[in-house]
Amino acid sequence: MRHNQDGFTQWFVHLIARRKTEMSSGITGKDSLFYVGEVPWHGLGTPLPQLATAREALEASGLTWKVALREIRDEDYRRVENRRLLVREDTGDVLAVVTKRYEPLQNAEAFHFFDDVTADPNGPKYEVAGSLHGGRRVWLLARLPEVIRVVRGEEIKPYLLLVNGHDGRTAIRMFPTSVRVVCQNTLNWAIRAADENLIWRRAHTGTLDRRDVSKAREILGLASQQFKELEQLLKELTRVRVKPGDVDELLREVYRHDLSERRRRLVAELLESGPGSDNPAVRGTFYGLLNAITDMEDHYRFARPANRAGRLASSLFGQGAQRKKRALAWFQRKLGAR
After folding, report:
1. 122 with 179, same domain?
2. pTM for the whole thing?
């Protein structure tokens, strides 16, 4: 038994040591990804000119490798019961020590499952896909067909994200998000920002079947309905003009004890001349006021560009997210009172 414990200790130390050498993005020299459109902040990955099919995404992201389960042998070459090694075949790296019940989901199988859920097996929809931590985490990000159009020239593009773990701990998860995932940081933010009611989860026990596809499709259907409701709400905001006293009332609701004169001035400036204010459906409307609050939270709360990660984290699940939720609730109450 001593040999078995020593072996587990060695593997644990080995895994921890590897993690200390990784970039904060989670991308190592043995990881790869592809992307469409805007270059990720880390500048890594293979660019594609347009949305990719599953086959194209699998190739461009470098996720064609597989994982395999291997027996564990102690120093006396005796098999360790109830534990196996999860090995990345192309590099030979041990990614995790797992139980005998563990069933890996291969990268190609993840793409196949994704296509089944979206009922679009051959359509181009993938915008980003790749691996992190030497292959211990894999993610697929696809553009959903719904596009939220509130005013001319503005679009909100929702995505569907699948996260798969080859680390022995991370369950298979799929959920809608508005976060374009390009690294470990944005993956964490997307997961934390996800609505718990719209997350499909599956442990690595057994193979995926039609029941899993059906459950994931149910969540996708709920998400589509939420997108429609959000679009309707935002369009209603474009039809309501801001009245005297509205800005102060909203700011008191959103910022409470943190309300400052600087925030008042900035919101007034953004409402008058912020992004999109040249559009009559934005300038001077509730929609423009919501945009002003959102812009201030996303872009003005920190003074230096070096805090970009902090701004995004706050915007998605920190104070910024809570303030935007309070703002949206205020607008909903106002619409209901009309």
Report:
1. yes
2. 0.72
